[in-house]
Amino acid sequence: MIIDAHAHLGSWSKEEFFPVATADWLASYLDLMGFDKLIASSLLAIFYDFHEGNLAVVEATRRYKGRILGYVTVTTSRFLDEAIKEVEEMVTKYGMVGVKIYSTPLYHPVPMPWPEVYYLHIDEPWMYRIVEKAAELEVPVLAHATPEDCLNVAKAVPDATIIMAHMGNTQIARGDWNKAIMVAESCKNIILDTCSSTVDMGFVERAVERLGAERIVFGSDVPLFDPWCQLEKVKSAEIDEEDKRLILGENIARILRLEE
């Protein structure tokens, strides 16, 4: 069983560089790779309209029921009450399986309607309320954030499960996977995902050695990263086959209670 725990629906503005990941495209991707399932968040929801983007993910999960699962995405602090309501409704009514928070300053090639998204940090009191809601609903938070911010939130909301996207390899913590491992060592409710531009030899092995394979999940970040490269980071790692099975699907299935 292989489950891609980090995928996206939609377009990253520069369509000449990246594919447009429609629901059909994602389903074809699963077929091509031989994967069983993926969990997608909306790129539209990250940068423009979180409600419209989340509804598009809901439609994709209905179109490919059981194969495409969804994260509900919220970003701007301008609509905090609406964001909390969005999380609850998308999880309880529409079956979203987690929350995606895109945090940290970054460059974007196009203007954004809410510039404050440039400066969002998950380590802020208003963001804690979103994470607390996820914990209440018993769904994980996939956090595109620095290791330090993930640590602070995980300690502040100990009942939450924080999946640190890219193993902490964000725009302002580029390549710092070792710090991500150290942070996860100190806080048991932090999980690391493997997708990133990092190709350092041995980083998967180091994470397994220090955390145990049970604390790591596989993700591709399609359509932004090459999924073959992301998959081979795990498949070619010098770890036990059982550890590979855990990372490639069994861990995220357990976190999402898919076996129940």
How does this structure look, described?
Helix content is 42%, strand content 14%. By secondary structure, the chain is of the alpha/beta class. Helix 1 links the parallel strand 1 (3-9) and strand 2 (37-42). It is globular and about 45 Å long. The relative contact order is 0.14.
CATH topology: TIM Barrel
Note the run of SSEs as H and E: EHEHHEHEHEHEHEHEHH
Mean pLDDT: 89
CATH homology superfamily name: Metal-dependent hydrolases
**Portion in helices:** 40-55%
Question: Which descriptor suits the 3D outline?
Answer: globular
Ends distance: 16 Å
Low-confidence stretches: 106-111, 113-118
CATH architecture group name: Alpha-Beta Barrel
List keywords for this structure.
single chain, TIM Barrel, 8 strands, eight-stranded parallel β-sheet, alpha/beta, 10 helices, 260 residues
Put the structure in a nutshell.
The protein is an alpha/beta fold.
Describe the SSE topology.
Elements: E1 3-9, H1 23-33, E2 37-42, H2 43-47, H3 50-63, E3 68-73, H4 80-92, E4 98-102, H5 125-137, E5 141-144, H6 147-156, E6 162-164, H7 177-185, E7 190-193, H8 203-211, E8 216-217, H9 227-235, H10 241-255
Helix pairs in contact: 4-5, 6-7, 7-8
